[in-house]
Amino acid sequence: xxxxxxxxxxxxVCLGNICRSPMADGLLRKKVKEHNLNVHxxxxxxxxxxxxxxxxxxxxxxxxxxxxxxxxxxxxxxxxNDFFDYDIIYVMDxxxxxxxxxxxxxxxxxxxxxxxxxxxxxxQNKHVPDPYYGTSEDFMAVYDLLDNVTDVIIQKIKDGTIR
Length: 163
Ligand code: 4NP
Description:
Blueprint: E1 8-14, H1 20-34, E2 39-45, H2 57-65, H3 82-85, E3 88-91, H4 94-101, H5 107-110, E4 113-115, H6 136-159
Helix pairs in contact: 1-6, 2-6
C-alpha cells in the first residue's frame, strides 16, 4: 500500500527512536488495527545514534508485559522528507520539537508538529520524560502516558477532530 492510500499518516518522534517513539508507535498501530482505521503509523528519532536498532530491551519488556509487541520496529532518523510523507508529527518533548522544527521549510510544515501530550493535557506543553537513564518504573510511567494519549488520539481520529 502506498503512503497516499491512507486517510491519515502519523509519525511519532523522540531523540533515539528506541524508547518513547517506538512505544507510541506500537500502541497507536495496535489501536488503529483494533478500530479498523485506515491510518499509517511510523516513528523516527531526531538523532542517528541507534539507526537500524530494535527498541531498547527495557521498553520491549514493558510493552510485552502489557500485551504490546514492539520488537519488530527498527530505529531510523527523522528527515525533512517526513514533512511530505506525514500529516501529523507528534514529538515527545521540547528538545525534539526544536530539532524537528529546525528542518521545516514553511508554516504548513511547522503546523504538522505537535507535542503529543497536548492531546491529553491541552495547551500545557508537558513532556514525555526520557526514560533512557531511568528505572523500570520510569519505563512503565512512559508506557502509561502513551497508552492514555493514544486512546485520546484514536477517539479524535474517530470523531474527525484530528485530520
Ligand atoms: P528515546 O530515548 O529518545 O525515548 O528513544 C533515548 C534513547 C537513547 C538515548 C537518549 C534517549 N541516547 O542518548 O542514546
